[in-house]
Request: fold
Amino acid sequence: MIDEQHRPLAMVTGASSGIGLELARQLARRGYDLVVAAEDESIEDAATELRREGTAVEAVVADLADADGVDELVTRTATIGTPEVVAVNAGVGTSGPFAESDLDAELNLVDLNVREAVHLTRAVLPAMVQRGDGGILFTSSIAGTMPGPYQATYNASKAFLLSFAEALRVEVEESGVRVTALMPGPTDTNFFARAGLEDTKLGQTKKDDPAEVAEEGIDALLAGKDHVVAGSTKNRVQAAAAKVLPQTATAKAHASMSAPGSGTDESTEDAR
Reply:
């Protein structure tokens, strides 16, 4: 049982693997007890792994693409305590021409990547503002800085998270609440397999270590930064270039990386 009187509480969504699991690990190592959530039973295995860090962990199996799943997570967390840090990390990707896409998959992406972020944030933010302390970390992406042909809804969802985080930051900055956008590039997780990107140049590009990405994200949040482009130097270069290049140019560059079948045996240094 988590005892909030002794250790602060953090919530992490999408924590069964990848960046989410590493965000939870970083928070555990910094003295937080945890509520971790994901849509499948593998979150129980992640919780067992995280307890080896000497922290108390509550695992919640919930489909956060559904409003009832978000409500369940919020209710379960409320029985334990009030989170001081929330990492809004759960997300999914799709790939391929939008006109040929599975509409249900595209709408599920919007529900998880966007709707869930709004719903969960609205549930936890008022208590932070009232308390005058706390932090929310949104996992966006450098994909959010450019249009994403063949990943149109994914890039749009990450752009939403970046804009949402920057707006909320200004709204609550005088209250003492911190809001940070984490913007990784290609990271070594199961994202590319799940999104069907393995046969693309993007899927075959060199990827960053999720542990390093997570550490940069938590460092930035606790330092009160508005955003952090995590991972390799090429991610920062690409994010900077996206600010000055025409969107038609960045869209075409992205298309060359994400088009189905674009992958070759040749290595590439480009990133999403």
